[in-house]
Amino acid sequence: MKNVLRYVKKYRIFVVIPFASMIISIALDMFNPYLIGIMIDRVLKKEEFELLGKVLLGIGIITFSRTILGYIREFTFDYLSTRVSIELKRDIFNHIQSLPFSYFDRMNTGELMSRIGEDVDNVWRAVGFGIGLAIENTIYFITAFAILFSMNWKLALVSLITMPFLAILAMRLEKKIGKAYEDISDHVAVLNTTAQENIAGVRLVKAFAREKHEILKFLELNKTNYNLNMKQANVWGKFFPAIEFISNLCVVMVISAGGLFVAGGSMSIGELVSFNGYIWMLIWPMRMIGWLTNLIAQASASAKKIENIMSIVPEIKDSDNPVVPEKIQGNVVFENVSFKYGEEYVLKNINLSAKAGNTIAIMGTTGSGKTSLINLIGRYYDVCEGRVLVDGCDVRDIHLETLRNSISLVSQDVFLFSESIAENVRLGKENATFEEIKEACREACAHEFIEELEDGYDTVIGERGIGLSGGQKQRISIARALIKDASILILDDATSALDMETEYQLLKNLNNRQRKATTFIIAHRISAVKNADEIIFLENGEIVERGTHQELLNLRGRYYEVYCEQFKDFENIQQEVI
Ligand SMILES: Nc1ncnc2c1ncn2[C@@H]1O[C@H](COP(=O)(O)OP(=O)(O)OP(=O)(O)O)[C@@H](O)[C@H]1O
């Protein structure tokens, strides 16, 4: 919570103003029961009617001032909490952007979303409302009790009798309601995830004719949600009347005991009525004690979760004196590189050299370490042993932003934003002209199909590119990488959904580019890799074969096996035709 309060400190004035309004408001409020007492004792009983105007004016001024002060207080508190919430969300978001891939391997999206959403809102509620109200209630309670004590200490003690019961009941109610609320909140998260997954995967559901099953699953969750809400209503139903009863019991006890004082002549009726007015200033803080402690506890738990994220220092960051090359040529060398995510090595002693403008193809069985290998170039992960050099410099010594700006990555898992096609491509180069966008799409063999769409480049694609075929999505993501015109281009299984003809044309376009990037291409198809300057074949994290297409065929090893497998059908057809 301490760190969150740091944000509040910046806006001291917006703390001082509402607190000052609150104190003045409370002070004014304390006069109300007193004035009502005067009205009864002096205006009505002693018939000092000349006081009536003054008393009414006093009550009027108090009411009016409290309204104005209330407005100032609400406005400034809201302003403060909104500012804190905006800045907290901004800082968490910025911080999350700086975290390395390995962090996202451990965390799930839902949890991170809760940090930015639910947890910040909890803190926001406490800062803007809870803490202020807790202080206000404490001041009310202490001041009202001091006044009551000075008016009639015996009666003041009578009024205290029910307070512990009220506080205990309020705390118990809050505990049970808090638990019920937590259950509902957890369950709503499950309900939302189920609905979201169902809608996102609606094609799969329909393809497997699982609609009925999905509906039943949702209905069941909905029923549980109903039961949890009923449970919460039951808790209210049980505790709320008891709290009302004890609150009123307190008033009845004070009025009964006060009646005796009035009958005995040690207290006037007006004083008793005033007394009654002050008692509610004791009762309300007690009734709210449970709710407020819960609100503040929740906020402090949320603040702790936020703090946990904010305190993570990204392990992949710039060295103390990073090299900032003016231009990266694109010479890439892997020197005795080994890498592991956990205990087991997924890359072992890799040695590889790519000259600027060369194409290196990486083949291998699934899970052999291909993606892990190319992830080391842009420092999405850092090597465990050995080093990766770009233009002769260890990547860990190169300014990270410069390094990543010189790399274009098309990853296996295509991600497109729910924006227009042009905007998606522009992500690769912020200030790209429309002509440049079109040119990149031409090179990526995407221009033709985009032109055929009704809105062309302005076509807004759904979440993750829904509405486009797998191959079309891949081509847009390739265009996005090409427009960046980086010195190093990495295609991680980026042509797998393309037909052979389009793939051939695309690779030809890449080869004919004016400034040819050093290209790393991961592929399973021989057709995609056969023209590479060097092909490496990975197995269990080790390079088991390397060479050009022809050299590897001559070797009659793993590459040759894949070749035979892929061309078997083709040769069969050829034989049939002959
Ligand atoms: N983020 C990760 N955390 C832990 N282990 C991982 C992670 N990513 C990959 N691995 C493991 O590392 C090994 C190599 O994975 P990698 O993705 O590099 O293989 P790949 O050759 O690219 O596979 P594919 O052809 O299926 O894409 C696999 O055993 C995989 O389970």
TrEMBL record:
Chief subcellular location: membrane
Location relative to the cell: Cell membrane
CDD domains found in the cross-reference section: ABC_6TM_YknU_like
PROSITE patterns found in the cross-reference section: ABC_TM1F, ABC_TRANSPORTER_1, ABC_TRANSPORTER_2
Domain of life: Bacteria
Entry's Gene Ontology cellular component terms: plasma membrane
InterPro entries reported in the protein's UniProt record: AAA+_ATPase (IPR003593), ABC1_TM_dom (IPR011527), ABC1_TM_sf (IPR036640), ABC_transporter-like_ATP-bd (IPR003439), ABC_transporter-like_CS (IPR017871), P-loop_NTPase (IPR027417), Type_1_exporter (IPR039421)
Cited Pfam families: ABC_membrane, ABC_tran
Keywords: ATP-binding, Cell membrane, Membrane, Nucleotide-binding, Transmembrane, Transmembrane helix, Transport
Name of the protein described by the UniProt record: ATP-binding cassette subfamily B protein
Membrane topology, record value: Multi-pass membrane protein
Domain called ABC transmembrane type-1: residue spans: 19-298
